[in-house]
C-alpha cells in the first residue's frame, strides 16, 4: 500500500502482509461508512438508538449490560493473552499491549459498575462492533510484531502517545461517571448532562475516547493503527452529530451553543 512520504516520518513502512494491508483498508472503509450511515439515519442500535427502527424489534435482543460486555470482552482477552503470546518483545510492543488491555478492561469495569442502562441492544449491531474491536486489537498487535527489526520511524511519538492515552482514558471515565449520575434511584428518563465539558459538547466522552485512541495510534505508529483511528474519527463525528440532533428534538431548552464533539467547532 502506497502512503504519502510525509507519513513515513511518523509511521513504520507498511508490512509485507496482505492480511494486515487488507484489514487496514477494511477497517478504514467500514468505520467511515458507519459514520456516514449514522448521519443518514442508519444507526448501530445501542444507547439512545437501540429501538430507532420498529421493524428491528423482532430481531434477537440483549440487555444493555450483556450486549456491552460482549462488545468488549473478546478484545480484552486478546490484549491480555498477547502478554503470553508475545512476551518481552520490545518497549513499544509492551506499551501497546498494556494500553489496549487497559482500554478494554476499563470499559468492562464501567459496564459492570458505572453505566446505567435503560435500553437493549440488537444482536445484529453487537456482532459487527464486537468483531471490529477484536480484529482491531489482534491485527494491531500482529502488525506491531512485523515491525520488530525494522528501523524506527524518524520521529518517535510513543511517549506523546502514552500522555494522550492517559488523558483520553481519564477524561472518558470522568464523563461516563457524570452520565451515570444523571440516573439516580434507577431512573430511566434522559436528561441534558451538565458538568465537565458537557457545557461545550454533548459527547465529551467520545472526544476523550478519540484522544485515547490517537494515543494508542502514536504508541504503535503503524499504518493499521492510523487507518482504524481515522476511520473511527469519522464514525464518532457522525454518532455525535446525530446525538446532538436527538437532544435538540427531545429538549426545547437544549443549549444551542453546545456542539456535537469538538468544542467551538462541530
Word description of this protein:
This protein has a two-stranded antiparallel sheet. It has 266 residues and is mainly alpha-helical. The longest helix is centred in the C-terminal third of the chain and has 28 residues, at 223-250. The protein is 60% helix and 2% strand. It has one domain.
SSE topology sketch:
Blueprint: H1 18-40, E1 61-63, H2 64-85, H3 91-113, E2 120-122, H4 123-145, H5 158-180, H6 204-220, H7 223-250
Helix pairs in contact: 1-7, 2-3, 2-4, 3-4, 3-5, 3-6, 5-6, 6-7
State which percent range the strand residues make up: under 5%
Radius of gyration, in angstroms, nearest whole number:
19 Å
The general outline is globular
Low-pLDDT segments, ≥5 res: none
What structural class is derived from the secondary structure elements? mainly alpha
Main sheet properties: 2 strands, antiparallel
The tally of structural domains comes to 1
Going across the major beta sheet, what is the strand order? 1-2
How many beta-strand segments?
Answer: 2
Helix content: 55-70%
